[in-house]
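Hey, I'm writing a tutorial for new members on how sequence and structure tokens pair up, and I'd like a real worked example in the thread rather than a made-up one. If someone can provide the structure for the chain below, I'll link this post from the tutorial.
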Amino acid sequence: MAFKRWNISQYDKQTAKELMDTCDIDAVSAVLLSARGMTDPEEIHTFFSDDYQYIDPFTLPDMDLAVDRIGRAIDTHEKIAIFGDFDCDGVTATALLYSYLKSVDADVIYYVPDRNLEGYGLSKGAIEKFIERQITLIVTVDNGISALDEVAFAAEHGIDVVVTDHHMQGTLLPDAVAVVNPHRNDSECEYEDWAGVGVAFKLVCAIAGGEEEILEEYADLICIGTIADIVPVTGENRFLIKKGLELINNTKRLGIAALKGVAGVGDKALNSGDIAFVLSPRINASGRIASAAKAVELLITEDADTAIRLAEEINECNTQRIRIESEMLEDALDILTDESYARDRVLVLSAPGWNSGISGIVASKICEQFGKPCIIIADSGETVLKGSCRSIKGFDIFEALSACCDCLEKFGGHTLAAGLSVKRERVEEFRALINDYAAKMFRYMPSGEINIDFKINPASISLDTLYAIERFQPFGMGNAKPIFGIFKAQIIMISPISGNKHIKLTLAKNNTTFSVIYFGYSTTSVPYRKGDTVDLALSVEKNEYYGKTTVSLFLKAIRYSGFSDDNIVSGMRVFENFVRRETNRKEIDYILTNRDHIAQIYRFLRDNNGWKFSLEELYMNLRPVIMNYAQMRLSLEIMKELGLVIEDTERGRIDLPIEPTKVNIPDSALFQHMLQLSETL
């Protein structure tokens, strides 16, 4: 897992105290609000209130034109086609708009493209099918902002197009009857963070003349699509999700009830996390493995048997998705054992046989693991390949793709996630271009962060803490689940749980003993031991057992106390620039290593029978600290080159050779390159 800087929010204690009195809230809520920069009493009241003044849909660009054209189509019984997308956002948007238009007796069909055969967005092939069916109006949902040629093609054949979308605008807008998109460059709407289903909701509200009846009918669909698309859970989105969760937990929609049943959560009160990790992946899996139309049908069916059948089929798609995802992730990690790929600023990976429907999930996991933007391009054997992009905070992947647009066939998306298509023979050219762009924009790429809301005393954690946190639901981007910091705690015991699949750490601080659960780690996969003094980043969770509610602490990150994050982050950046041959004078002075550094590392590895944990944790264990992190990394590279150490990437180990040989440090080409740079820069 990529090392992340710990970012501890700052807050004013006096402001927090004043908020407790002014807003009549508890101390945890007051501190949390203050740490997140929310100190206006009126804003806080709105945040916690269940009442909300919804934004006038007619403030979105072209909404009046869209309503007029769709209204005429309804009144004159024109044939309308809703053109959707195959992800969860597009599926729910399609189901919402289709269901509403059917309810007002419109002559309407829906069409969701095949991810693998047709790809993302409106296509001429789909339009030709609409011509055969005598469609006169296409309404896109969750796509269309970049469909310039396709909208023109439809117009040539007498078909009007209304675009509703939420992706970023390129240079030009399609010449449609209406382009309803809060991200239009000329938009003056006060809010812009809706998902595609949110924009479809605003369209339906504009047609219907109000929100309440629409929410009573469709808030569940809006909630699922909004959470799945990872848009900010702030402003109107927050209230749409809250309304939707109420509906989902008292659902009358047969498809959602059936999906909850096959997922094993039929009797559970779901929260935003359950939607994100239980329901949404299953709806997405339909479009990834089979046809997204199956998921639309599930959400609109009024037949219980059909709902159960479709839910079971979609659940099986999800099982297949998990298997394929695991195989693709393993392949991607194998590619990244090649350091020429792993040291890129932007990771661009492609391999034959990869499934384009799974590429976004794999890109997200690689991005998280390596702390770098990742683009997974599925080589399906076609001339034009499809790719999915995921990025890190501070690196706008849409802008990066825009800078490389001459190399691409098509692209679109958001700041942190996007899609593209590229000819097979241009993949390596694209990889070079986007990394050149990254190098020009960032000498040092943005580093990942663990955002800690505030330091907490373990003695103060109670059910009241838990209930305070629950008030901040629903969680998501822009309103993350709170993370707390406990610093300088001493480990008393590390115990295996669930057959050593996870561990429980028992710690002490200020005469208080407490326990935290670390999921996915065993007693042999962490270097920490009894007596170590550590810092913890953790979440406070509800644990219900036989009707009794208790507090559980879940560990999100751990580090040895007393080490500077900046030292490690700076060292990573300088080391990567060195191996990319991009070092400047200041950096070579910083990374300049010597025999003493190499000797200390060698002795440590000898005394500890090698090393099987992270390099950051290796650095933290080198006592006394006589080098910076960049010097340690370069020393290890020199040692590998000379055969002093052996790196087993498959097992994640650094070992000493069984029969060590005497070596001369200056024989290392890397060592000589370092000295040469030191003399010439």
